[in-house]
Write a structure and sequence with these properties.
Elements: H1 2-15, E1 19-21, E2 29-31, H2 52-56, H3 82-90, H4 114-127, E3 131-138, E4 148-155, E5 158-163, E6 168-170, H5 172-179, E7 183-187, E8 205-206, E9 211-212, E10 216-218
Antiparallel strand pairs: 1-2, 3-4, 3-7, 4-5, 5-6, 7-10, 8-9
């Protein structure tokens, strides 16, 4: 009998169940077996008996540090001066790419020399929005009495000489040394003739250029 009781109690302990036990000749009583694995909660906050499927469906919480707001820098861009705009445009103008052509068997109009360079340059620069003039260089210097044609452009309340053949930009103080001519005659267009540097529309007064009742500037 005792052997049977021992086997019975061992079975109850292994099964972990709670049930009423009836022993012949003894009153009924309830045996309570404490589960060896209670629903404990770990430091993570997830119960120990949570299923794997539940854990897979739980969104992962990642704590990130918010970047500190950097001061916004303000970039100030100064507008280009008229001179800077002209220098930039001059790089795109292709007048100076034209071949210098002298052929005495052809008429002057069918050649391509300083007058033709200047005429094309004035048209292009005027179309680009610049105030441009034709300039005829003349004067007897060291026995010379020939002439040369180039352009002048008014920029930022000043004027500059521009040779369309080379794109060289010069101030008035540099002209006599560069070309050797004493006078610079200003006009709006170029008269193309064999031995004539006259201007179709002379400019008799221009405050910025320095004309004072005349259409020329003395360079020497």
């Amino acid at each position: 009998m005792k052997k049977w009781l021992i086997v019975f109690f061992i079975t109850i302990l292994v099964s972990g169940c709670i049930e009423k036990v009836s022993i012949p000749g003894q009153p009924e009583r309830t045996n309570t077996v404490i589960d060896s694995k209670p629903n404990a909660t770990f430091a993570s906050g997830i119960p120990d008996n949570t299923s794997n499927d539940t854990l897979k469906n739980t969104p992962e919480i990642i704590v990130t540090k918010m970047p500190s707001s950097a001061p916004t820098s303000v970039v100030t861009v100064n507008p280009l001066t008229k001179y800077e705009k002209f220098v930039s445009w001059l790089k795109t103008d292709t007048t100076n790419k034209h071949s210098y052509t002298v052929d005495n068997s052809k008429s002057y109009q069918n050649q391509y020399v300083c007058s033709q360079f200047t005429k094309d340059f004035i048209k292009n620069a005027t179309d680009a929005g610049f105030e441009v003039y034709a300039v005829g260089l003349t004067g007897i210097v060291k026995g010379q009495n020939d002439w040369h044609m180039l352009a002048s452009v008014v920029l930022d309340n000043d004027f500059y000489f521009v040779d369309p053949q080379t794109d060289q930009i010069l101030k008035k103080t540099d002209m006599f040394h560069a070309y050797g001519y004493e006078y610079a005659y200003f006009g709006k267009d170029v008269y193309i003739g064999r031995n004539n540097a006259e201007i179709i529309m002379p400019v008799y007064y221009h405050q910025i250029i320095g004309l004072n009742g005349q259409n020329f500037v003395y360079l020497k």
